[in-house]
Amino acid sequence: MSKNTSNTSPESGPIIATFFRFVIPSTLSLLAISTASIVDGFFIGNYLGADALAAVNLLMPYFALLFGIALMFAVGGSVKASIHIGEKQYASASSLFSQIFFVVLAMVILAIPLSLIFSNYLFAALGADSSIYPLMQSYFEIFCFVTIVQLACLVMYYFIRADNRPELGMRALMLGALINIALDALFIGKLGWGVEGAAWATLIAQVIQLLYISSYFFSGRNNLKLYWPAFNFKELGYSAFNGFSEFINEFSIGLVILVFHWVISRQSGVEGIAAFSVVNYLIYISLMVYYGIIDAMHVLLGQNFGAQRIDRVKAFMRIAAVSIATLSIVLVAMLHLFESTIVGLFLEDDAKQAQQLAQNFLHIVWPIFLFNGFNVLICAYLTSAEQALHSSIIAMLRSLILPISFVLLLSFLLPGIGFLYAVPVAEAFAFLFAVIFFINYRPALLLKKSIG
């Protein structure tokens, strides 16, 4: 372990320096992921039009389901691995990592053939108009294989961070994002390959990214080993349960988007779905910024809970809350100052109706950025404290139960696009529950329970 790494270890390093040593790579990593997605949207929207943008975004709920399952195992398992590492039990951490890696890989390899065989039924269930099935199919056939590589890399990323190597994960994800952007420009902008070009760009980038992050196992500094393990289904079940809130957060994004697509398609058709895609991209960017902090907190909190350093847990929570508050204010200010410019990045000049709809949508949903960062922070805290049930309740409320309930209710009560108020109202109500749970499971009380 290098001197710099030991000086900023989660259990003993200076709070501020350690926080930013983990948060900066994590944030840059997730921004790299979101940037690649946003650039996909930029090239598709500007070069291929609103139909292609809608076709790609209609597939999001399905991939969110697969990603959510993998994230559930990766986050829940990496939190437990962080605790094992804090206790210096590296063999246990390696066993858990290996089990989760192969379980996630088996899951996605089984899912892909089924989804390809029944793709038309899937497109119909996602609320797509049959006129854009060919566009969806062209993208879907390639992106299914992207998912296999992407989820393998996802599991490695979370566990390598748990082993105090956040910089490696950051470099891998940033490399993948830069390659994806360059190939988007080549395949879509120059060669005119259409939506297939976007999918091929992502596949090539993900393969290179996976190869790079795999260098961890040849570094000589890896505490985690990857091997065919003896599967402990109780341990796997516990990891899935502990990460269940992350599954809910990810899967429910897809499900809520699906419900919104159904409602919007009745009112505004493909133009409305393309406009809502812009809103999705912006919410996605904000969540990636917040998750940059949250993912780092899983390691920082997990290892300190393992070492029973509750003083450091409280200190890391304070600095994370201040950081999220600052970022929330900046994001809201940027949306108000540069709204038309931001919308114009995703939709070509000829798509005037979609541009106007996107701006109208943003006028309604912007308050979400004042609450969602704090909600996911408290979810991360409860997950790291192994309070999975309460973390899952917040996740269910903020990203599934409340938004779907409100959107169905408001679509009947309010005319036009008033149903979009469901997005910020749901997040605000969830914030109230999150605060109550945090107060009831604050660090000092958890310490008393562990001692008692």
List keywords for this structure.
452 residues, mainly alpha, disordered N terminus, 83% helix
Description:
This protein is 83% helix and 0% strand. The protein is mainly α and 452 residues long. It has one domain. Helix 2 crosses helix 3 (50-58), helix 11 packs across helix 12 and helix 11 (244-306) packs antiparallel against helix 16.
Topology diagram in text:
Layout: H1 3-7, H2 15-48, H3 50-58, H4 60-86, H5 90-117, H6 119-125, H7 133-162, H8 166-190, H9 194-213, H10 233-242, H11 244-306, H12 310-337, H13 339-346, H14 352-365, H15 372-384, H16 388-413, H17 422-440, H18 443-451
Question: Could you write a compact summary of the structure shown?
Answer:
This protein is mostly helical and 452 residues long. It has helices at 3-7, 15-48, 50-58, 60-86, 90-117, 119-125, 133-162, 166-190, 194-213, 233-242, 244-306, 310-337, 339-346, 352-365, 372-384, 388-413, 422-440, 443-451. It is built from 18 helices and no strands.
Q: State the end-to-end CA separation.
A: 36 Å
Beta-strand share of residues: under 5%
What is the radius of gyration? 21 Å
What count of domains describes the coordinates? Answer: 1
Note the total helix count: 18
Largest sheet data: none
The shape, in one word, is globular
Output the helix-strand order: HHHHHHHHHHHHHHHHHH
How helical, in percent, are the residues? over 70%
What is the average per-residue confidence, as pLDDT, rounded to a whole number? 83
Structural class: mainly alpha
Number of strands: 0
Q: Report low-confidence residues grouped into runs of 5 or more.
A: 1-6
